[in-house]
Amino acid sequence: MTHAKRKEELFDHWPEAYDQWFTTPIGSLVKKYEAGLLMDLLRPRPGEFILDAGCGTGIFTLDLLSHGSHVIGLDISLPMAMRASEKLRGYPFQMVLGDMLSLPFPENLFDKAVSVTALEFIEDGKSAVRELFRVTKKRGCIVVATLNSLSPWASRRRAKAKQNHTLFEKAIFRSSDELRSLAPAEGVVKTAIHFQKEEDPNHADEIEREGNQKNLDTGAFVVMRWEKP
Fold first, then answer.
1. Model-level pTM?
2. Which CATH number fits the domain 3-227, given the four candidates 3.40.50.300, 3.40.50.150, 3.40.50.720, 3.30.565.10?
């Protein structure tokens, strides 16, 4: 069994649970703040050609499409890809099966590239980011998001990994500084989700505002933006 095949199987049973999480009260808040930070850093525009690498079920892909962008989604899991294709039918979207470590695209193809919570399942983060740079046009931007190793959310997932949670056993969490180290270019890094999973949703908004005002680097969702020279 190849390395790619092992990664593929890791996500095959998660499409339904992944989508359902974002419909819960706290999950919908997480989605709002994560999508807001992603769109702020990626700044998708009408007509742009964007790669969504590791798009999963298309949760965040839909936000890109809502800005009028044309999107190629890539994922290693067939069930995830099928869910995204079904969900995004009728949009300017095309689904491709593939591995982020070997993107099946020529150089300088996309205006922008984004990857959301896929890097935490790739040990060789530098090679994955290098691939995103390779397929992005000059002066285009690359945005990568993952779970912050400095966040209590990561601590809880490490604890679940010790209890043999199949998905989290394979996860690699990174801090803002670790994300910066994945590419030689200078970039901008921000975090979101300063509240906890058990938080009262009515209180979470206040906690999030305070975390943003203090520019804390411990938010659960850490996002890095680079511009390709």
1. 0.89
2. 3.40.50.150
Q: Each residue's pLDDT tens digit in the chain (229 positions)?
A: 334 445 555 556 667 777 888 888 899 999 999 999 999 999 999 999 999 999 999 999 999 999 999 999 999 999 999 999 999 999 999 999 999 999 999 999 999 999 999 998 899 999 999 999 999 999 999 999 999 989 887 767 666 655 555 556 667 889 999 999 999 999 999 999 999 888 888 899 999 999 999 999 999 999 999 999 9
Instruction: Please name the amino acid found at residue 32.
Output: K
Taking the CA atoms of residue 188, residue 199, residue 57 and residue 101 in that order, the dihedral angle to the nearest 10 degrees is 40
**Cα separation of 55 and 72, whole Å?**
9
